[in-house]
Amino acid sequence: MKVLVLIVVLSGVLLIGGCASSESVRHEGGFPVYMAGFPTANAIKVEPVDEILRLPTAAKRYLSHITLDATRKQNSVLDELIESMFAKQQLDVRYYSHANSTVSETFTSRQANCLSLTLMTYALARELGLKATLQEVEIPEYWTRKQGFSLLNGHVNVRLTDFQGNWKSSRLVDFDARMRALQFKAQPISVRRALAMYYNNKASDALVNRVFPVAFRYLQAALQQDDTLTAAWLNLGVLYRLAGHHQYAEEAYQKVLALEPENLTVRENLAILYRLTGRPEQAEKLASEVYQLRQSNPYYHLNLGDEAFDKGQIALAKSYYRKAYRLDRSNHLVLFAMSKTALAVGHKDDAQALLQRALSNAEQHVDRQRYEAKLLVLNDYVEEQTK
C-alpha cells in the first residue's frame, strides 16, 4: 500500500528508497540530507520566508478599512477583522484542501488550505498589532486520496488576542468547521514550524507529481526551518524510496522514530521498505502491529476502501466502507464513499440517499458544493432513466 504523508495542515506522507553515494551535506540540524541523490536540486529556487508571509498592498488597504470600521462601529479591531474575513461582501475566504499558497496569493485568490489561510490570518493580525499564536491540532490519522496516493492530513489554526490596557480579548480562528466542532487539543507552534509545514506541503505536491528534485529542494527548506518536523522526514524517506535510495530512506524513517517512536505512518512505510530490501519477517511484524492499532480508526478503513475502489475492486471497497461506517455513521466522507459503491453496482436509489446524507453532514462549503453538484447530476440521470 502506498502512502504519502503531507502535513499541512496539513500533514503527512509515505512513499519509497537503493544505495547511492555517501556524499552528503548537512543542514542546520546536523542530520545528513543527501544532495547526491538529487544533484539538480541546488538550482531550484523556493519561496523565501519573507515572500511567504509578505502582505500585498491591497491587504494593507484592507486593514486600514478594518481599523476605520472598528472605530466607527465602536467595535474591537479583533472582532472586526474576523467578521470581515468571512463576510461575503468583504474578504470571504474559502477553504480548499489542496491549495498551498503564499500570504499574497491567498489574499488575492481568497481560497487556500487551512495552513495557507492560517498564515494569512497570522500576517494580517500581526500587521494590526494583535498577538497571533499559531497552533498545531492533535487529530487522529486521517487520509485523503490524490492521484493514486494516500495523503495523511494534519491541521493548524491560530488564536488571536487583542490587548487594551488591562482588558484582553481572545478569539480562535479555524477554517475547518468539523475540527472546530470536535475540539481536539492544540499546541502552540513557532512561525518557523509553520513555515516548515508550508515547504513540506509544497514538497508533497511535487512528490505526487513525481517531480523529485523539486520535492527534495522543498523538503530541504522545510528541515532548515524545523528539523523536528516528522512529516518532512517521513516525506524525505518516501522520496528516497521512490528514487531507489533505500539506505537513505531508512535513515530518514529512523529519524522519525527517534522523534516519535509510536508514529504508525512511518512504521508502515518502514515495513514497505523492509519488504523491498529482503527483510520479510521484520516487515510482517511491523505491518501486523500497525494493522491492529488502526482497527478502531474509521479513516483507515476508508482509505483501504478508496484504494480498492481505484483498482475496480468494488465488493472489497464496499466491505471496507461498511467497517468505516460502523465506526462513524455521520462521517460525510464515508457516506459519500458508500454512495459511490452503490452507484457502481447500479443501486441508484441507495446512491441518492447516501449522497443526500453526505450533503447533510458536510460542514465545509466546498464539500457541500461538491455533493450538491453530484446529487444534481445523479437526480437528473435517475429521472431520465425512469421516463
From TrEMBL:
Q: Any keyword Repeat? A: yes
Under InterPro entries, the record lists: CellSynth/LPSAsmb/PSIAsmb, TPR-like_helical_dom_sf, TPR_rpt
SUPFAM superfamilies the UniProt entry points to: TPR-like
Q: Has the keyword Transport been applied to this entry?
A: no
Among Gene3D superfamilies, the record links this protein to: Tetratricopeptide repeat domain
Alphabetic keyword roster: Repeat, TPR repeat
Instruction: Tell me the ranges holding the TPR repeats.
Output: 230-263
- Top-level lineage group: Bacteria
Q: Entry's PANTHER family?
A: LIPOPOLYSACCHARIDE ASSEMBLY PROTEIN B, TPR REPEAT-CONTAINING PROTEIN PA4667
What is the name of this protein? Uncharacterized protein
Q: Organism source for this protein?
A: Alteromonas lipolytica
